[in-house]
Amino acid sequence: MSPSGTPLGMPSLPPPGEPTWKQAWDAALYGPRGFLRRHPPALDRDPAALVALVAAEAPEAVVLLGSAGILAPAVAAALPGADVRFDLPDAFDGVVLAVDWLCHVPAHVVAVDEAGYPRFVHVDPVSGRERLGSRLNETSVPQSIGLWLTEWWPVAEGGPGARAEVGTGRDAAWRDVCRRLAGGTALAVERGHTAAARPRGGSLRCPSASPDRVPVPDGERDLVADVALDAVAAATGGRVVLDGELTRVVSR
After folding, report:
1. Mean pLDDT throughout 208-217?
2. What is the DSSP string of 127-139?
3. Are 35 and 29 in contact (CB under 8 A)?
4. pTM for the predicted model, two decimal places
5. Which of 22, 118, 131, 220 could hold 110 in an S-S bridge, CB 3.0 to 4.6 Å?
6. What are the pLDDT digits (tens) for 108-138?
7. Which InterPro entries match (predicted)?
8. Tens of pLDDT along 2-47?
């Protein structure tokens, strides 16, 4: 093995300027020519079941986030007189329905190197080629990243090659939603996992591509990663409801 390489097939350090996966993911979805700026998120769940989730709460106001926005006409029909909106004001007393919203929050991707240390993964936005970057125990890396992994996804236990998506940004995003509630309910319907079944290789992918295709953050395709549901729930004092395609975090 050369000094600049690793047994995982990645150079030890990325070239200057090559972004971390989180940076590239954010630019690919939300940059000036980002995918989600040009293509609304698709809904691939049963609309009637989602509307029923909301209607069961009998709210006077509903906020729809992520691909739930497509449901606006159906929600309005099911709840005559309800205020259906897409922005979340402070002191909101109603139901927030977020569908596949958190899975679109970009996250740091880490991989365990041959010595057993988790490291940032950098990526070429054009080719999708990945390279290992800084170890998470370096002083330049925010401690919150390593602490989150220790508590929620101890990826190093998976050995060299194991990967994880760091959920600090998703936890913070859902916490921000919930802090705006004043007696309402927030429902995050997401594909995700809990501590008992984290995916060893992570779950970052392009939803429309075959599972074995390398995700490329070029802005021409969607990018998602499943959500650490238990971490999101704990961040807001919520709970995880395992319910097939309606699996969700419920926070009040």
Report:
1. 86
2. T--EEEEEETTST
3. yes
4. 0.91
5. 118
6. 999 999 999 999 999 999 999 999 999 999 9
7. NDUFAF7_sf
8. 344 444 545 455 555 799 999 999 999 999 999 999 998 899 999 9
Beta pairing class for 163-165 and 227-228: unpaired
Helices (H), 165-248: 168-179, 229-236
CA 74 to each of CA 50, 63, 98: distance values in angstroms, whole numbers, following the listed order = 10, 13, 15
Contacts of 68 (CB under 8 A, 6+ apart): 43, 50, 97, 98, 99, 101, 189
Q: Which residues contact 196 (CB under 8 A, 6 or more apart)?
A: none
C-alpha 221: how far from chain center: 16
Pull the structure tokens for residue 204: 């970052």
SS3 175: helix
Q: What is the mean pLDDT of residues 137-150?
A: 96
CA distances from 47 to 50, 61, 71, 81 (A): 5, 18, 7, 20
